[in-house]
Every structure is written in C-alpha cells, then in structure tokens.
Amino acid sequence: MCLTASGLETARRAARALGADLHGRAGRVDEGAPFEDAAAHLRALFAAGRPIVAVCAAGIVIRALAPLLGDKRAEPPVVALAEDGSAAVPLLGGHRGANRMARALAAALGGAAALTTAGDLALGVALDEPPEGWALENPEDAKALAAALLSGAAPAMTGEAPWLAEALARAGRPPASGAAGAAPEAPASAAPAPTATLAAGGAGPLRYWRRDVALGLGCARGCDPAEMADLARRTLREAGLSPLQVAFAGSLDLKADEPAVIETARALGAPLRLFTAEQLEAEAPRLANPSPTVLAEVGCHGVAEGAALALAGPEGALIAPKRKSANATCAAARIGPGAAPWAAGRARGRVALVGIGPGQADWRTPEASRLIAEADELVGYSLYLDLLGPLAAGKPRADFPLGAEEDRCRYALERAGRGRNVAIVCSGDAGIYAMGALVFELMDRAPDKGGVGDAARRVEVISAPGVSALQAAAARAGAPLGHDFCAISLSDLLTPRETILQRIRAAAEGDFVIAFYNPVSRRRRDLLAIARDMLLERRPPDTPVLLASSLGRPEERIAYRRLDALRVEEVDMLTVVLVGSSQSRLAMLGEGPRMYTPRGYARRIDARAGAGREEGSAA
C-alpha cells in the first residue's frame, strides 16, 4: 500500500521483491489498484487476512488496525515500510511471516529489518513457527524454551531438523547432539518418535515432526466419519507414525462430497487432493493390495493405496498398506524427493456465496472479505465486482449482466468442479433475493433435469451472510423493523403476478411492516401502485414510507413519504421501499426524522407512568 507519490518508487520495488500487488491512494498515487480511504482499506485487507506492507508511518497503520486486534494466531502479517526503504518494521504477525517479509524487503531495498521479537533477534529462528513442511507438537512450551535459551542455557537436540540446527549455529548457539543421525523409526508397539526434539536448561523438549506422509482414504457411500477417523488413527499408530506427519490426504474424485473423507482430512490439517479413476489406475503396478472388485466398482484397482502413492510421487513408497474397516479403507505413503503433492490431482473446489452488503466497505463482514481474498476467481454482476475496489485487485473475474443469473451460477459451480475456489459476489445477503437459492437448486437437480454436472454437485459451498438492503435501509431510517415485518419482491419474472398480489394481501391483513424489493422495472411500473392502493384499504393515509436507494454509496438517497403520497415515478430499480405498519411512526428526533415501529413497550411505560401519578396524588 502506497499513500504518497514520494513513496511510489519504494512501493514498486517492494512489490516486485515480494511478488505482491500494488495498491495506491487515489489522487496521490497514479498506479496500482486505487483506494480512497487509507484506514478503511487497511482494515478491509486485514480483516480479509491479507499480508500488508504499508509504505507510510507506522502510527498510521497502528491507529487504523487497533480496533481489529484480537487473536495473534489468526492475524495476518503487517509491515510498515519507510518511504525511502531504510526501515522495514514488522508490526504484527512477526512469527507468521512479517519478520521474513521485513528481511526480504531489507535485502531488496538495502535497508534494515527492525525486528523486535526476542527469539528471532537472539536465535535467528521462531521456535513456535517451524517452516513449511514441519509441525510443532507442543507450541505452548516454546515460550519457556526460548526464555531458557535467551538466559544462556545450552541447547540439546535429537534427530534431524537442519533448518533449526543451522539457525542456532548462525546465532552462535550450536546444539549439542542428544542422538546421532535421524530419530529411528519407532516399533509398532511404541509411541511414534518425533523427527527432532530441542531442549535447554530443563525446558522442553519441543517435539518437531517432518510432514512427509501422504494418506490415502476410501469409503463406501455414507460412511460414518467417526469410523473413517478411527481407521486413520489406527493406520498411523500401527505404522509408528504421528498424525502430525500427514502433509496431504487423497481420495477418488467421486468421494469429493463424502463427509467421512472431508472431515478426516480436515481433522488432520491435511489438504485434500482428488484423483480420477484413470489417475489412480496409473498407480496399479505399485499397489500392495490391488482389488478386482474395486476396479469393477469405480474403475481403478485401489483407492486408498493409489491416492497415497499418487501424492507421494514416483520415488515415494507405501509405509502402511491398505487397512480396512467395515466401510472405509486407509493407506499411507512416504512422500518422495521431488514430489509435488500440492499439484497432484485437484482440490475439491469451493463456491463461496458472498454477500457484500449494499456496497460500503465498512458494512462488509470480515468473513466476506476473507472469502474474497482467498478466492481464485470472482464471479458476479459487474457493478458488484466493481464495488469491491482494491480487494479484488489482480484476481480473475467473470462478469455477467443482469438477467444472466443462471449462467453466473452454472459457471461458478462448473469452475469449482474443476478444483477452483470461486466466490460468487452478491449485493446485500447472498441468501436474500440473490444467488444462494439458485446455486443450491442447480446442485439439487439431476443433470438431465437441468442441473449441473456430477463434479459440480460435489463441491464445497459456503454462505457468508451480508447486510441486506432492508437492514441497511432500516438502520438509516431508525428502527422501522422494530416489530414484525416481511419482504416481498414485486418482480413477476419468476413469480406469478397473482402470487405476488396474494402475498401483499396477506401482509396487509397481518399489518406487517413490508420491505418491497424490485419495486419497479423498465417494463413493470404498476405493481407498486397496486400494492399502495391495497395497503391503503387497511392502513392510515399517513403511514410512513421510506424510499432508500444506493445505500452506503456516494449517490445514496433517503426520502420519506406518506403512503397516500407514494408516487411510482420517484422509485427506480435500485430503491428499497419500506412501508410501515399501522403502528409505525415518523418523528423529528435529534438531528432529523426517525422512522420506528413500536413493539408494545408503551403499555408498560404507560402503566408505570399511571402508577406514578396515582402515588403522587395519594401523597
């Protein structure tokens, strides 16, 4: 993030060094993805979990992010970079990448990495954050061990963890070897032995594990997840392996939506990779237990062993041949040198249904921002994608016009079926008059009945709630939804006209506050007037009506009308019309008009006031 033109050259060099997107403040930096409000943009990126390098004073970043700070284990790394590149200061997430980013920036820009975490300064390594491909079993003990080392205690190490031994040696603290060479494989009856341990001065030992095991999973349709999880634990235990050694899990693509497979991989913290039957059959010559029955059922001689070997690569080997339970199979393989399990097969694929609210960044939830940041591709109506601003910078996007909602959802599901992480971006809440229902309907239909293909039906779908238009309108007005309310769309494109009229009559009879969505269109101008007249049969002429359009955007418009004075010509497609109940009020309160619907507290208030008057008279 670059706030001023004077820091632009440093920002360019920093972005190149880190392979990062450049975001420039509009009006000052004529380059990169533009943003208007620096503090709001910092908060949006931080809430989305995106690492940040801010080319500005550290104080600006601190003041902007202070309200969001909470769990340090979940926060992204944040670095403040001086405009001249002379200092890179990790502010947050030092052990989650900020220190590494600061060092990389210092090396690229010829400045200094102003590290402040004691372990990194004195030891050259964060004991509780091992590098990619390693896991620490007991991170809660790292603080005590670091304190012992910083107090001068000599480190003692068993097994092999070259990254740890080399870092300590560079810091002038080479560890004494507690055991020569690698930790031996534990016998099946014993607890698995860590790849390496580190102790000092009575603290520790910290137990480190190399994550170099691939787990293959197979099961019958509807297998109990507990059965699969138990089999996986037993398979690892009998092979002398720890669950912390599992780096990836794999299965047949037909199992992409099988809870037993999904939950077992998730519990192990192992990314799930999926393979076609043809890909697994290519591993048939290496299987220990090929099965003609499995071949006849799914098209390959083995799922569990085949998936484990496909992840392990050509130089990998089985270390736990197939184990079976009543409905599940499991096998483990050692990942070979040069293997790329993260690129083998494909991911399960995900569709995130993201409601971004009316458009204002401050009304977008942190979950929505995070899902957008994680997505490989964004799908939606052009206006909604544009409202994301810099949060969508650098991401592939598929723009669809109004009226192409089905095409939009089919595209997203089919892309996810190929292993992509796709976000469908909706205004308001994705489940309220938006794409949520259509996505599930397409998945629920059989392919020959207009549904999506088999792979698309097995993808993960996540729904992120958003601030709906009726909520935003109500917040601007005051509290018109303080009592029972309903929402009715006046669009007759997908709903029969008589059904809409029936719902209006029912809402009028029930005296609900009503939020009218899609009140008019270019060709449909009469339903709002009909609704007004139907409501006037049961509500006072002075019933307050709120007209709210483009909420949270610069062109926002708020207007109040009496029900008998509501004119169709002042309403457009971007307007939400809130019609009060017979009890709703419009009053001048504070700085302006406030619309609210009492819930019934008046009876209590009046009763207390009456009792007070009686007591006063008696006195």
Quick structural gist:
Helices cover 33% and strands 23% of the residues.
Textual characterization of the structure:
Residues 179-189 have low confidence and may be disordered. Strands 7-11-10-8-9 form a 5-stranded mixed sheet, with helices on one face. It has a 5-stranded mixed sheet with strand order 14-13-12-16-15, with helices on both faces. Strands 19-18-20-17-21 form a 5-stranded parallel sheet, sandwiched between helices. Helix 1 packs across helix 4. It is of the alpha/beta class. Helices cover 33% and strands 23% of the residues.
Summary tags:
619 residues, 5-stranded mixed beta sheet, 21 helices, globular
Using only C-alpha atoms, the radius of gyration works out to 30 Å
In whole angstroms, the N-to-C terminal distance is 70 Å
Number of helices, where a helix is a run of at least 4 consecutive DSSP H or I residues: 21
Spatial strand arrangement across the major sheet = 7-11-10-8-9
Summing up helix and strand content along with how strands pair, one would put the structural category as alpha/beta
Parts with pLDDT < 50 across at least 5 consecutive residues? 179-189
Mean of pLDDT: 91
Task: Please state roughly what percent of the residues sit in beta strands, choosing from under 5%, 5-15%, 15-25%, 25-35%, 35-45% or over 45%.
Answer: 15-25%
Shape: globular
Total DSSP E strands = 29
Percent helix, as a range, is 25-40%
Largest sheet: 5 strands, mixed
